[in-house]
């Protein structure tokens, strides 16, 4: 080789060595995790899902080029101290690690099979339940805030025949057949403004799990559904706060780290309706009080005037989190929910004004303490003690008869829950536990003229044990959960055994088959004695089963089979179901016909199908849901033992809606339609010798079809790096459709039959403003 060639070779080798050193130095330089994730997404064809705050300030070196995806995930976990959970379709969820054992504790078996179900922040799990994560929640028609109990009514098979969150009907069931839990505590009140606003502040809520069938055996009660509301349970180590208002209420929340082991979470909300009269409040007022003593007395011809109404509501929630060690956690919860209404009734007699104050107070006060222990990488135990106290108190004056009526309904629910979870391996998880509940229900009525006082107090204690196994196949195509729960009711000395099953199998890359079944029972229910109880606003009162011919234990059996097609952001889902519920009473069904004052025991059966088609584009999500169901009563002592339509028999229900997202702007528009609920009409020819109304066969006709169009829009603002804000506008019932949601008949002094019609909300605007920092 010539000298010139040697020189060229030397220069080339020197250059390569320099480049190698430079490359090594570059690879050793730490870079922001967000930048590295973008690089990995392009190279490995995966998608990362995370909250920006989770990866903030995380830096690491660029991983080696030759790592497999599994090796890469292990490397990222080690370097960032975060959890990287690989889902199907190469989606990877990044979350903060609870403690050194969290990688074993994460609910890996409950795989997410559908993301962004209807809208952002709603998921469907492999065990059949729907999960709503409020922090990630997008937008739904008519909603500008993630109202928990309004949101779940967007799901197929769930609606409210009277547009309230205190009367949610899941596949033809009454509201008291829903088990509503707040951090594991059973709630007996779910609404503000007597049902028009959810009673649960969403801004400290981590997730809401909704199960219509095939529920876990750790849940008792709730023969129709389980709505499990879970608060944030992890230390964020970062202060967060927010506040906002709309035309009904104002609220605020804060997460306050006290040190590296403790955190305080606080939220509060209060109505502004007793300070400011808004168009939204005007519509709510008309809707709530249209069939109450307050409105009826205003229309009276007996020189009685109702005035000076004062209404407000509030809720306060606190949670104290204490991580004693990396493997021991302590949690304290407190929540109070309150509705307060009062108004004056004035009668004018002999030029003298007599003023009487009517009032209605509704409150649910709960508290709990929970201890969680991670024994090792496979075994976890939790223990919780809670107390839930519900109180409904009313004072009602009958001015004409100079009568005062006091009514009270109180529920004290003491619960103890102990649960153990063993992660045998990545494919099998075992659960077992014990639960104890003592429920005391009191009903008091006190009348001054004639003097009368009734106090009824019932106590029930239930012991429950359960066991459950969760399995997922090695190829992740099959998920199965099977369990059995046994309840022993002390009062009746009876055992009730309840098997539950949830199976999901992936037929190929696009189709998934699902089968759900369960047996359930419950000992608490709500009844209506008289339609004007509690001022005609909160008519329902809680009672306990006595297991005889008066109030039996409610039992249910239901099964469902479904098939789901999911490809290229197109979801087509169909689920057929059947549900049998026995042990219901006529007083729990709200009859306002010939059965209004009859006490009979019966059952109902509902059969139907829920269908959904949901297509998502880059900025648009649109869906069409349709439910068909046939829901029939059967009371042996009524209607000659023949079946007839259930009061909640909504035969057809259809929703067509869509959302549009462009940068910080979100829009939603939706149309809701369903067939009218059944109603009973009087006979044309009445017996004039009595003032009793004679009716046709029960539920012989239906109300007119229900139609409502909703619109909502939100816009995100960023004032600084740490302060965000949002503005929202919504219109409920955009077309101001006059929907009839109930009708019944009464007689006046002349024995003339009059039809009373209750209407839904009219056009109802709302505006909100929120700030987070």
Quick tags:
transport, transmembrane beta strand, mainly beta, 45 strands, disordered N terminus, single chain, 7-stranded mixed sheet, 22-stranded antiparallel β-barrel, receptor, Maltoporin, Chain A, 773 residues, Beta-barrel_TonB
Fold blueprint:
Blueprint: H1 3-28, E1 31-32, H2 33-44, E2 47-49, H3 52-55, E3 59-60, H4 69-80, E4 82-86, E5 91-96, H5 102-105, E6 112-114, E7 122-125, E8 130-132, H6 148-151, E9 158-159, E10 169-170, E11 178-182, E12 185-186, E13 191-192, E14 197-198, E15 205-211, E16 225-231, E17 240-245, E18 249-257, E19 262-271, H7 279-289, H8 293-298, E20 304-325, E21 328-349, E22 352-374, E23 379-398, E24 403-425, E25 428-447, E26 452-472, E27 478-489, E28 494-506, E29 511-522, E30 524-527, E31 541-544, E32 554-567, E33 570-585, E34 601-616, E35 620-635, E36 644-645, E37 652-662, E38 665-674, E39 678-679, E40 701-702, E41 706-718, E42 724-732, E43 740-747, E44 753-759, E45 764-772
Parallel strand pairs: 2-5, 11-16
Antiparallel strand pairs: 1-3, 4-5, 6-7, 7-8, 8-15, 9-10, 11-12, 13-14, 15-16, 17-18, 17-45, 18-19, 19-20, 20-21, 21-22, 22-23, 23-24, 24-25, 25-26, 26-27, 27-28, 28-29, 29-32, 30-31, 32-33, 33-34, 34-35, 35-36, 35-37, 37-38, 38-41, 39-40, 41-42, 42-45, 43-44
């Amino acid at each position: 080789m010539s000298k010139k060639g040697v020189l060229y070779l030397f220069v080339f080798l020197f250059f390569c060595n320099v480049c190698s050193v430079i490359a090594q130095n570059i690879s050793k330089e730490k870079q922001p995790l967000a930048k590295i994730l973008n690089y990995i997404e392009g190279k490995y064809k995966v998608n990362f899902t995370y909250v920006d705050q989770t990866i903030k300030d995380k830096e690491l070196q660029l991983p080696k080029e030759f790592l497999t995806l599994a090796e890469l995930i292990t490397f990222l976990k080690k370097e960032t101290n975060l959890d990287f959970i690989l889902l199907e379709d190469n989606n990877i969820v990044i979350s903060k690690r609870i403690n050194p054992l969290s990688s074993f504790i994460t609910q890996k078996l409950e795989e997410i099979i559908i993301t962004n179900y209807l809208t952002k922040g709603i998921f469907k799990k492999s065990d059949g339940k729907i999960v709503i994560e409020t922090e990630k929640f997008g937008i739904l028609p008519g909603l500008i805030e993630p109202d928990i109990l309004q949101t779940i009514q967007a799901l197929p098979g769930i609606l409210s025949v009277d547009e309230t969150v205190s009367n949610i009907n899941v596949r033809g069931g009454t509201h008291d057949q829903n088990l509503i839990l707040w951090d594991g505590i059973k709630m007996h009140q779910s609404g503000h403004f007597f049902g028009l606003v959810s009673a649960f502040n969403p801004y400290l809520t981590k997730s809401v799990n909704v199960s219509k069938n095939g529920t876990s055996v750790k849940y008792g009660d709730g023969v129709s559904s389980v709505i499990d509301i879970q608060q944030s349970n992890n230390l964020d180590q970062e202060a967060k706060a927010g506040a906002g208002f709309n035309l009904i209420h104002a609220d605020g929340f804060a997460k306050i780290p006290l040190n590296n082991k403790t955190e305080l979470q606080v939220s509060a909300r209060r109505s502004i309706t007793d300070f400011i009269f808004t168009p939204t409040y005007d519509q709510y007022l008309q809707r709530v009080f249209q069939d109450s003593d307050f409105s009826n007395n205003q229309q009276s011809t007996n020189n009685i005037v109702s005035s000076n109404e004062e209404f407000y509501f509030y809720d306060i929630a606190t949670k104290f989190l204490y991580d004693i060690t990396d493997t021991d956690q302590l949690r304290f919860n407190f929540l109070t929910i309150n509705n307060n209404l009062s108004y004056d009734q004035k009668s004018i007699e002999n030029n003298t004004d007599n003023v009487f104050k009517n009032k209605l107070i509704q409150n649910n006060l709960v508290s709990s303490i929970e201890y969680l222990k991670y024994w090792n990488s496979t075994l976890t135990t939790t223990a919780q003690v809670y107390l839930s106290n519900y109180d409904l108190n009313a004072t009602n004056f009958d001015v004409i008869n100079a009568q005062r009526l006091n009514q009270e309904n109180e529920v004290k629910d003491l619960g103890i829950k102990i649960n153990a979870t063993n992660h045998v391996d990545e494919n099998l998880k075992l659960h077992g536990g014990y639960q104890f509940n003592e429920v005391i229900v009191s009903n008091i009525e006190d009348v001054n003229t004639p003097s009368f006082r009734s106090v009824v107090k019932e106590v029930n204690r239930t012991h429950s044990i359960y066991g459950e196994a969760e399995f997922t196949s090695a190829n992740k195509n099959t998920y199965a959960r099977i369990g059995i729960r046994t309840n022993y009711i002390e009062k009746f000395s009876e055992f009730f055994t309840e098997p539950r099953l949830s199976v999901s199998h992936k037929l190929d890359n696009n189709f998934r088959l699902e089968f759900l079944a369960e047996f359930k029972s419950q000992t608490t229910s709500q009844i209506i004695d008289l339609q004007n109880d509690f001022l005609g606003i909160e008519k329902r009162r809680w009672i306990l089963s006595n297991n005889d011919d008066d109030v039996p234990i409610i039992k249910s059996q239901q099964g469902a089979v479904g098939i789901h097609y999911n490809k290229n952001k197109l979801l087509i889902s169909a689920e057929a179901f059947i549900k049998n519920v026995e042990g219901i009473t006529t007083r729990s069904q709200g009859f306002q016909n010939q059965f209004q004052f009859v006490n009979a025991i019966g059952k109902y059966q509902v059969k139907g199908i829920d269908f959904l088609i949901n297509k998502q584009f880059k900025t648009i999500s649109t869906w069409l849901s349709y439910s068909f169901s046939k829901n029939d009563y059967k009371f042996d002592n009524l209607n000659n033992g023949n079946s007839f339509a259930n009061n909640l028999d909504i035969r057809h229900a259809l929703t067509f809606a869509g959302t549009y997202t462009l940068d910080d702007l979100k829009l939603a528009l939706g149309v809701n339609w369903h067939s009218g609920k059944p109603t009973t009409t009087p006979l044309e020819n009445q017996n004039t010798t009595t003032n009793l109304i004679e009716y046709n066969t029960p539920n012989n006709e239906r109300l007119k079809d229900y139609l409502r169009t909703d619109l909502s829009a939100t816009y995100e603002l960023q004032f600084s790096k740490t302060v965000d804000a949002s503005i929202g506008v919504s219109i409920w019932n955009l077309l101001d459709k006059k929907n009839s949601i109930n009708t019944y008949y009464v007689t006046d002094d002349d024995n003339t039959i009059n039809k009373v019609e209750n209407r839904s909300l009219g056009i109802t605007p709302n505006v909100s403003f929120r700030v987070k920092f």
